Every structure is written in structure tokens, then in C-alpha cells.
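Lab notebook page, bench 4
Experiment: in silico fold of construct C2
Operator: M.H.
Input chain length: 544 residues
Purpose: comparison with the prior construct
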Amino acid sequence: MADTVREIERKYETAATGAAAGTDADRLPDLTRAGRVATVAERGTRALDAVYYDTADQRLAADGITLRRRTGGPDPGWHLKLPVALPEVTGAVRDEIRAPLSDAPPRELTALVRSRTRDAPLVPLVRLRTRRTVHALEDAAGRPLAEVAVDDVRARRLDPEGAARTARWREIEVELAPGSGRGAGQKLLDEVERVLIGAGARPADAPSKLARALAETAPEIAPETAPETAREGAARPAPAADADLPHRPGRTAGDVVLRYVRAQVRAIVELDPAVRRDLPDAVHQMRVATRRLRSAFRSYAKVLDRAATDPLGVELKWLATELGAGRDQEVLADRLAGALAEVPRTLRLGPVSARLRTWSARRRAGARERLLAALDGPRYLALLENLHALLGAPPLRRPAARPAPPVVAGVVLRDYRRLAHRIEAALDTPAGPARDEALHSARKAAKRTRYAAEAASPALGRPARAFVRRTKQVQQLLGDHQDSVVARAALRELATQARRAGESGFTFGLLYGREEALAARSERELPDLWAKVSRPRHRAALRA
């Protein structure tokens, strides 16, 4: 079983490069001048030997991921480092996932990078041998605050067909102690940095030892012929949020749509390891990305050829279903459990809590195993390969070359008209199952309209973002109604099971009535909300 350690660190370069051990360059400045640091205790010197693995075209390095086999030091074994986005933290934040030593990369780690490597083999690229001198920073009570390592590094490119390329350098690494706290920890890192820079150090240019090793041992290839993912081994920057992009009338429709498609594909790839690790909300977010991508293919069929995207849409729908198998049941169970908790004990007749738990466990049984099997299967791998191929050679149609604003505005307004038709049809349908189905259909149209407006935001600016917010309100109201429909079906099933077991179904009936009331409230609120959302001036703003 792999262990996970969260590391927050900063790296610095020193003037000494390849200096001999034991010189003055090994010495740190007085770090007790940094805030709460009371003592600096040297913990000795370690010899570390690590071989880093990646695909031949360095797909892991391109995303700031490292996979290594290391011996020496207190934690020998395989280490996979995945970047973690914490906007409030300055410095590298990574989850280091560890597995015991073995000859080949362990499957529990290679599965976590499969969405990046796809079918490409992992091969040894670089060997780093490091002489590390460790210093522990402690407060006045002797509690650990951080660890400072002075590393003399020797790097060698492992290329059996080429000449050995090597590099040497010295760096200082400052890593917070576990549990030191983000706020206090960030302040400590700032204070240590002030002392180090005052002594002549500077923040490292490379985000990791591997990135520097790949850059300094790279063969000399003309920039125009070098693979993009391999250049300098550096991680690609994450796509900017829609709101961060200025309105640029000269951008083409193809530019805008592909940017949105690329962001969703990247989200699927980046969320894959989080789903495998069962991190909070990862399944939901990955499912949303698949839905956004499928919706973009359908909405922007004038920009991207449906002959290429329709087969991908089928596979994305399959993936969303696999992701939702356990997620939907978990959400439903939480809803019913929360409602039951609000019922007075005097009205909970029979073993209702136990029956709810048993029912939920049975329906969720095997869901995670099924999902992991899907992610490890050939169908998912083929989907990733095909998405990668689509981004490499986009199937653009003629409107893709046109200026973006009129093209994407037309798409959003067309999807809006579909939504308006379905809302009006639902409001005209008598209450009952037929209206429930009509409202569910309207919810799907609201979601598609919202995603189309999201994609259009870089071209249309503030009006599109406002359109997204308004459409999301409609989607959420209709979603609340649909959740009630699903909950009522589950409560009918639970009441039937209770009756067959000779138990009282009273409490489940009580909850059913509560859900009916919630659905009725949503239906009453919809006309007023739709009247506000559907004002003509909102649509006119998209064409301005």
C-alpha cells in the first residue's frame, strides 16, 4: 500500500556550482534570524541515488510530475510526485506517493499517471546522485518547523544511443515540517528566504531537480525541431480561466472553441489520479468535465466536424455513466439521511435508519471497483488517445476561421431557444410524471446552454459570463426538482421493502411528502425566475 506525504518547499540556487563538499559553500547563514527559528540542528549527510522515469517524449515532466526510484536516506523506494494547486501557498506543493522498492515501476503508481502516459512505456531518463546535508529548524520548545537541505547534485542523462551528458550544481531546499500550518508556514518560508537571499542565494529557476537535469543534459536540438513536451523538461502552464482573458475581437471561433475543449480534456487528464486516489469531489469534477466536453461538441458542431466528435461524444457519455454509478447513489443517500435526521424521533417508526443504510450499501456495492476497472480498461485508454489526436489535428469546419463573437453568440442563442421551448412546454404540462419529465428535459437544455456560454466567454466577455450565471440559476432550480423526483422514487422503493418485511412505512411516507412539497415549491418558483432570466436585453447583450 502506497503512503502519501504532502510537501511544501522552496528551492534556491547558490553561487557554487559543482563545488567540492566541505567548502564554505556548504555553510548556511544564521537561520535563527528567521522568525520563530530558535535552533538549527545539523542532522548529518546522506547519499541519495535516484533514477527518474518518464516517457521518451517526457509527458510527465511536461506536467510537472516526477516518478523516481531512490535508494539512500530515510525513505528509499519509489516516489511519485503530483503537483497540488494551492493558490494561497507560494512555493512548490506536491503530494509524494511512496511505494516499496522493486525492479520495475509499481502498478499502484503507474496507474496514477496512465492518463498522461497512455500507451507509452516508462523508461529511465536521468540518474541523480545527491550529497545532502540536512539541517532541522526548531522553535524554542524544540518543535520542528522546517528542514533545510544543502544538496550537491550530479546528473547524468541515461541515453543508451547517445553520448553521456552530465551536469553538476548545488541547491538549497527548504521544506516545511508536517502540520506547521499554511499561514504560519508561509511566513516562516518568507523569513528563511529573506535570510538566504541576503546571504547571496537566489530562487531556483527550475521547479525541480529533474527539470534542471533535463534542461542541462538535453541534446542540442534546434528549437523548431524539438518536441514541445520535451523542451527543457518544464511543466506547461495551466490554461487561464475564461475571466482572465481579455476580450479580443480578432480571435477566431476555432480558437475559442478549441481553448474550451482543450481545458476540459486537460481537466479529465488531471483529475484521473485524484479519482483513483478517491480524493473529495474528484469523481464529480471529472464527470462535469466529460459533460462539458460532450456538450461543447454538440453545441459547436458548426465549428468542429461532428463526423469526428460524435463518436467521442458516445464514449464521453459512457465515461460519465461510469463516473456517476457510485456518485449519484452517494448523493441520494446523503439527501435521504439528512432529511431523516430532521424527523423527530417520535415519528421514526421502525428501523428506518438501518434500512436506509442497508439499501444504500447494496446499491453502492462494487461501484468503485467498477469505476477503477473502467479507468484501467482499453476503452478509456482509447478515448484518451482519440482526444489527444483530436487536439493534435482539430477537425475544424469553415466557420472556425470566422471572427468568434458572431459565431459563438449564435450558438449560445440557438441553445437558449431550445431551453426556452422546453421551459414553456414544461410550464404548460399538467402536474405529474409528464411535467417531471418535461422539467428534466429543460434542465438538460439549461446545462447545455450554460456550457455553450462558458465556452463563448473569452470572445463575448461580461455579457456571456452574466448569461452563464443566470442560466446556472435555472439549472440549479430544475436540478433541485429532479433530485426530488429521484428521491421520491427511492422512498417508494424503501417503503415497499419495509412493508414486505412487516415494518412500518410511515416514516418513508412522511419523507415522500416532504420531497413532494420541495418539488412543488420549485415548480412555483420557476415562472418568476424564468421571467427574470429570459429578458430580451440579456440576449441582446450577447450580440452587442
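Observations: Strands lie at 3-13, 39-54, 66-71, 77-83, 92-99, 123-138, 144-157, 166-176, 202-203. Confidence is low (pLDDT under 50) at residues 17-25, 225-250.
Next step: discuss at group meeting.
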